[in-house]
């Protein structure tokens, strides 16, 4: 869905807190925008004042300087507000990012000239229940993962679709992903690559043992329930955030969210596969460990 940005009056520039060069560059971006007659505030993604101002609706746009993880974290903050994000790559892969670190000025000039479009990406909502007690709720850009804990034993997870039993997985983990997340953990687990404009839920088992070993693509309106049947330690992870311990019979319900991740784009809509193949042919993280 292509829509126009609101009047671009006030911009937040958020940098990965662990990258000093990104924090410094964020200040330069803010100075540039102010020189173009806009208001801008720069700081770390963890800056509580900036985060409060974003939540209060003070900004029309957020610029991120970091990698895909920075975009995910900013997405959790911005999506419920319908606030668009312009990502600039200071990381490795940049599956979600098309603006390189040295090209931010020309990208902003194109943006201010109106030469852009907005891409809206489906998000999920995950709810954690223990019996009738709700324990947590998350907005999801990439994936929801139920994985084994410290013990090297497969988990048993019962999957239901629209309150009807689907199957029981015996696997190291089970991934429920968005089309955006299909190029993340789901891809590493052998799942299909879904184009970002699709509105589906992807269900992928990791190292399944004598259970269904194929990914399943579910419709947008599906209600997916995943119930842990194992007594050994297990965890829930949403978009790579700190994990949550699960207990036997805990249930994770996954549905499509009413919110969407809105990203500023400059390339034509067919950019996705071209960028993807380029990244996979020249893996920038090979030989690097952080």
Summarize the structure.
This protein is α+β, with helices and mostly antiparallel strands. Helices cover 20% and strands 38% of the residues. The protein has 2 domains: 10-116 and 266-281, 3-Layer(aba) Sandwich (Rossmann fold); 124-258, Probable inorganic polyphosphate/atp-NAD kinase, domain 2 (Tumour Suppressor Smad4), CATH 2.60.200.30.
Q: Secondary-structure blueprint of this entry?
A:
Elements: E1 10-15, H1 20-35, E2 39-44, H2 48-55, E3 61-66, H3 68-78, E4 85-89, E5 99-100, H4 104-112, E6 117-130, E7 133-140, E8 143-148, E9 155-161, E10 164-171, E11 173-177, H5 185-188, E12 201-206, E13 216-218, E14 224-228, E15 234-238, E16 244-246, E17 251-265, H6 271-281
Parallel strand pairs: 1-2, 1-3, 3-4, 4-5
Antiparallel strand pairs: 6-7, 6-17, 8-11, 8-15, 9-10, 9-14, 11-12, 12-13, 14-17, 15-16
Mean pLDDT: 91
Name the helix and strand elements from N-terminus to C-terminus, one letter apiece: EHEHEHEEHEEEEEEHEEEEEEH
- Percent of residues in helices comes to 10-25%
Looking at this structure, what is the CATH superfamily of the largest domain? Probable inorganic polyphosphate/atp-NAD kinase, domain 2
Strand order of the largest sheet: 7-6-17-14-9-10
Q: In CATH terms, what is the fold-level topology of the largest domain?
A: Tumour Suppressor Smad4
Q: From the alpha carbons, calculate the radius of gyration and give it in angstroms.
A: 20 Å
CATH level-two architecture of the largest domain: Sandwich
Structural class: alpha+beta
